[in-house]
């Protein structure tokens, strides 16, 4: 994801160290297919361990969906958390991930166990700023890291691309081949030994173990697509994925006997941004989940809350289907100040609007100011009661405990974490940043099944020598729902 949830759109944050296995294969080079964050992390890891690498991407430039990731990257027990005295642990992150939808503890153990060292790796090796934290939906602690400027997906992915580019310019240890579409995997006696790619109408071959980092299939709306096959009910929805996201790696893996898993689990993210000038656009920009982490509220056409803004993505989307559109994501001044770079960027793109006062917002919505005041007052009172008596509330909370918040409590997924809350009396004169939001196809939990070493497995569950998967193409890591970050 994710949201850098970059995917973001969110990409699933690859756990960067899983891949170091690939460089231990005795081969002249490793081949990485796909230049998003998973791919460039794999390429850097191979280089770090003294291997040679060729990175192949079908687009004109690397980056993929990872560059769109807007909320940050998860890490438990990081240096940033310790500096900010945030209490978190690998066990807590593991528990949150399993509650969030994951079904394979052995993969979750690697994902969460490596998450802290991976964030620290980005800071130490690539000099990246990861000094800000947010709590995303389903997380029991603030553990989604970002820097002070720009979108973290862009910042992180470009830093890693530039490192591979620098090495490719100075030595023969790395090569990057763009506008090159890998069409098939080569095998010998059950092992993957290389791949074939097309560039400018010609075919070329590369030899070596292959790390697939080709992403999901969330932008393939053709009639023979994986989306059409497994989730025809979602074909009418917009997507946050670039049009390169067509499931190539999954199809190539299946063609040589790899086993796929969970292809029916496609994440629909609740906060795709609606452009007022082009509301029907098929590809939509994503509103970062961190906007809710800093205190953004989700309201319906009547100005009322109807869900736990920090619930799982599939849950928030499900509650939106039951309520009354258009839906708005609204941030008061304290909330927007905490994530102001994002708000100004979205406003500049025409997908968010600044209102000088709650009164102005209500006028545009066609509702009474008293309605929005009551919404905020109820939320404020629930937050006060939660602080005084965290376990005394009448409703079940998520991911655990009790809540006093009625709108979310009634859904069975109560809100227990509150941030930058204002009371109803402030609404009339409070400035707000506001976006109209709609559910969007965001992330494919399914993909090629991997083991705990990132090896792709065959139909019998046995590792296929020489074939690895990283990032969104790797299936089974997140189960039926990926947490943001």
Quick rundown:
This protein has 485 residues and is α+β, with helices and mostly antiparallel strands. The chain is 30% helix and 20% strand.
The proportion of residues in beta strands is 15-25%
Percentage of residues assigned to helices: 25-40%
Secondary structure class reads: alpha+beta
Main beta-sheet strand count, sense and barrel state: 6 strands, mixed
Q: DSSP helix count? A: 16
Determine Rg (CA atoms, Å).
22 Å
**Overall form:** globular
Distance between the termini: 6 Å
Mean pLDDT: 94
> What is the total tally of β strands?
22
Oligomer: single chain
Strand adjacency order, main sheet: 6-2-1-10-21-20
**Residue ranges: pLDDT <50 for 5 or more in a row?**
1-26
Please provide a written account of the structure.
With 485 residues, the protein is an alpha+beta fold. It has helices at residues 20-23, 37-48, 79-83, 90-99, 105-113, 115-126, 152-170, 226-230, 248-255, 290-293, 313-322, 333-338, 340-348, 358-365, 369-388, 406-409; strands at 30-33, 53-56, 73-74, 132-134, 144-146, 174-177, 181-188, 191-199, 202-207, 210-212, 260-261, 266-273, 297-299, 327-331, 353-355, 395-396, 402-403, 432-444, 447-449, 455-457, 463-469, 474-475. The strands form 6 sheets. The chain has a 6-stranded mixed β-sheet with strand order 6-2-1-10-21-20. Strands 12, 13, 14, 15 and 18 form a 5-stranded antiparallel β-sheet that branches. Strand 20 (455-457) and strand 21 form a beta hairpin. Helix 2 crosses helix 7 (152-170). The chain starts with 19 loop residues before the first helix and ends in a 10-residue tail after the last strand. Mean pLDDT is 94; it is low at 1-26.
């Amino acid at each position: 994801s994710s949201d850098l949830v970059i995917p973001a759109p969110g990409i699933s944050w690859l756990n960067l160290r899983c891949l170091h296995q690939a460089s231990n294969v005795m081969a002249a080079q490793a081949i990485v297919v796909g230049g998003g964050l998973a791919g460039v992390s794999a390429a850097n890891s191979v280089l770090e361990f003294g291997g040679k690498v060729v990175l192949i991407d079908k687009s004109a430039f690397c980056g993929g969906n990872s560059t769109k990731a807007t909320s940050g990257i998860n890490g438990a027990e990081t240096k940033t958390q310790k500096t900010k005295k945030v209490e978190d642990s690998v066990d807590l992150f593991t528990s949150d991930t399993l509650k969030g939808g994951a079904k394979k503890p052995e993969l979750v153990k690697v994902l969460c166990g490596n998450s802290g060292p991976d964030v620290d790796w980005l800071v130490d090796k690539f000099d990246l700023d990861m000094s800000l934290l947010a709590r995303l939906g389903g997380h029991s602690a603030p553990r989604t890291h970002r820097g002070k400027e720009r979108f973290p997906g862009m910042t992180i992915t470009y830093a890693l691309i530039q490192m591979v580019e620098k090495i490719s310019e100075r030595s023969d240890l790395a090569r990057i081949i763009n506008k090159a579409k890998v069409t098939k995997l080569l095998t010998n006696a059950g092992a993957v030994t290389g791949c074939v790619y097309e560039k400018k109408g010609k075919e070329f071959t590369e030899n070596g173990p292959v790390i697939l980092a080709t992403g999901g299939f969330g932008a393939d709306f053709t009639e023979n697509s994986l989306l059409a096959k497994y989730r025809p009910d979602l074909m009418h929805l917009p997507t946050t994925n670039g049009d390169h996201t067509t499931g190539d790696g999954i199809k190539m893996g299946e063609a040589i006997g790899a086993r796929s898993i969970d292809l029916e689990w496609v994440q629909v993210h609740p906060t795709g941004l609606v452009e007022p000038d082009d509301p029907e656009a098929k590809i939509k920009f994503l509103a970062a989940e961190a906007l809710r982490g800093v205190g953004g509220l989700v309201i319906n056409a009547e100005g009322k809350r109807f869900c736990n803004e920090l619930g799982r993505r599939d849950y928030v989307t499900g509650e939106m289907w039951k309520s009354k559109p258009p839906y708005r994501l609204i941030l008061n001044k304290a909330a927007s100040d905490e994530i102001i770079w994002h708000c100004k960027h979205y406003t500049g793109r025409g997908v968010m609007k600044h209102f000088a006062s709650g009164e102005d917002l209500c006028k545009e919505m066609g509702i009474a100011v008293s309605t929005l005041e009551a919404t905020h007052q109820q939320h404020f009172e629930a937050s006060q009661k939660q602080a005084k008596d965290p376990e005394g509330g009448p409703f079940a909370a998520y991911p655990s405990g009790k809540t006093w918040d009625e709108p979310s409590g009634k859904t069975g997924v109560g809100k227990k974490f509150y941030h930058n809350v204002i009371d109803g009396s402030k609404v009339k004169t409070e400035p707000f940043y506001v976006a109209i939001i709609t559910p969007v196809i965001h992330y494919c939990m399914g993909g090629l099944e991997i083991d705990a070493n990132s090896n792709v497995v065959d139909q019998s569950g046995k590792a296929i020598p020489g074939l690895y998967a990283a990032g969104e193409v790797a299936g089974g890591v997140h189960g039926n729902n990926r947490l943001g970050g």
